[in-house]
Amino acid sequence: MHEKCGVVGVSLEDRDAARPLYYSLYALQHRGQESAGIVTHDGFQQHSHVEMGLVGDAFEQSDLEQLNGSQGIGHVRYPTAGSVNACCAQPFSVSFKSGSLGLSHNGNLVNADEVGDQLADLGHAFTSDGDTEVIAHDLARNLLEEDLVRAVKRTMSRIHGSYSLTIMHDDTVLGVRDPEGNRPLCIGELEDGYVLASESAAIDTLDGELIRDVRPGELVVLHADGTGYDTYQLVQPENTAHCFFEHVYFARPDSVIDEQLVYEVRRDLGRALWDESGIDSDVVMPVPDSGRAFASGYAEAANEDADADGVEFAEGLMKNRYVGRTFIMPTQDERERAVRLKLNPIKSTVEGKTVTLIDDSIVRGTTSNQLVELLYDAGAEEVHVRIGAPPIVAPCYMGIDMASREELIAADQSVADIRDEIGADSLAYLSIDAIAGALSKSKADLCLGCVTGEYPYDIDGEAKDREVDRPAIGTAASADD
Ligand code: 5GP
Ligand code: MG
């Protein structure tokens, strides 16, 4: 099982890349807390440091000093309950006959087993069961026969699924976004070089300028002297499959993804939530931090609505910032305790009031369940829950480790059942149409698998929401196609 992660790549004129990579990984820490790593190249050889833990813990001053070279890539990896696995930490690096490769991957292939089996038959030995290693070996093999661009194109014709990659082939840094653009990837300009990153917030951190998103199916090659880059549209997708959940939950609100500022999208979703299911109450309060932008948009729309009573936007829940993301907790009991540890109501904003509580999503229901009870205990008269995403009814296979069907509270329950289970006076979710509207995308260009149960990819045992023509694996696609 692979995870959503953060990837970066940097090519500078003559400064060491290690520090900018380190800072940009810090900016992407929310995308993965299990491990962090950097691989650089100094023109002669690769240097690598990959360790378990947060970015701040994974690197010492001396680690950064030994990462010589003006070119490099980095990675932060997302944790999955129970599989703290040092073998899968990235960047993945290999040396082979025609050079060295480093690879950082965000996403999840759906045909890694098939491609891996084929490569194994051809004599490739794998050290992990990860799909990133499959990509690395396939690319290494193609690089024995083709130039860089053709080799990447050939690999892209064989792998299927979700991948935003930063790759280092010797001292050349590349960025690749899968033809469906499932995960984000963007390119930015620094004073003395160029940077590729999962999110533009990482470029901001380096005082760089966002140039644009890497396009679905595009390869970006950063010049090894840090002075420019070339791009190749290697696959022309008919439809994209952007993950809407990046905009709803996962990405930083200060990032621009596919030309939209995430914060504004979330505020628009909050406004749509008012339009679809607004209810008068004394206060509107967000579940911090994920509900904040939604609640501010919702309250704004409520206060603009001439037919409504007007509402106070209040920070009614205090967050203990030192508690990690609750998902990391392996058991349900620990997850429940963690919510209580993490959030505490501010009594004066709650007592004797009718409250609308707003969050981005309900996954297992743990957070809403605990918070509704907490607000009643603090003296709330009514608690209405509004959610800035549709019910999550099915798992994510594309890199967001969202739990299995049995764990998803909405997998087999109606909204009314869920309302009763979490004990709220009312509950409403946002519609899928509102999501497509806020993202200015057709539903056919989004991956909506977790809210429809139909996926834009071939996944064993799951329904598909579109026809996608793909070459059968094993047909050695030519780069000139
Ligand atoms: P629940 O408590 O219902 O299981 O999860 C909902 C809460 O988890 C929401 O506050 C939401 O912000 C957060 N959340 C949603 N998706 C994810 C995810 O993929 N990872 C983590 N860590 N949190 C998530
Ligand atoms: Mg949350």
From TrEMBL:
| Positions of region (Disordered) | 462-481
Q: What is this protein called?
A: Amidophosphoribosyltransferase
Q: How is the cofactor bound?
A: Binds 1 [4Fe-4S] cluster per subunit. Binds 1 Mg(2+) ion per subunit.
The job of this chain, per UniProt, is described as: Catalyzes the formation of phosphoribosylamine from phosphoribosylpyrophosphate (PRPP) and glutamine.
Q: PROSITE patterns annotated for this entry?
A: GATASE_TYPE_2 (PS51278)
Stored Pfam families:
GATase_6
Source organism, top-level taxon: Archaea
Keyword Iron-sulfur assigned to the entry: answer is yes
- Glutamine amidotransferase type-2 domain span: 5-225
Q: Which InterPro entries match?
A: GATase_2_dom, Ntn_hydrolases_N, PRTase-like, PRTase_dom, PurF, PurF_N
What's the catalysed reaction?
5-phospho-beta-D-ribosylamine + L-glutamate + diphosphate = 5-phospho-alpha-D-ribose 1-diphosphate + L-glutamine + H2O
- Which positions are annotated as binding [4Fe-4S] cluster? 243, 396, 447, 450
Q: Which CDD domains match?
A: GPATase_N (cd00715), PRTases_typeI (cd06223)
The active site lies at 5
Cofactor names from the entry are:
[4Fe-4S] cluster; Mg(2+)
Picking any one GO biological process from the record gives:
'de novo' IMP biosynthetic process
GO terms of molecular function: 4 iron, 4 sulfur cluster binding; amidophosphoribosyltransferase activity; magnesium ion binding
Pathway it acts in? Purine metabolism; IMP biosynthesis via de novo pathway; N(1)-(5-phospho-D-ribosyl)glycinamide from 5-phospho-alpha-D-ribose 1-diphosphate: step 1/2
Keyword annotations of the record? 4Fe-4S, Glutamine amidotransferase, Glycosyltransferase, Iron, Iron-sulfur, Magnesium, Metal-binding, Purine biosynthesis, Transferase
Q: Which Gene3D superfamilies does the entry link to?
A: 3.40.50.2020, Glutamine Phosphoribosylpyrophosphate, subunit 1, domain 1
Per the record, the similarity remark reads: In the C-terminal section; belongs to the purine/pyrimidine phosphoribosyltransferase family.
Positions binding Mg(2+) in this chain are 290, 359-360
- EC number(s) per entry: 2.4.2.14
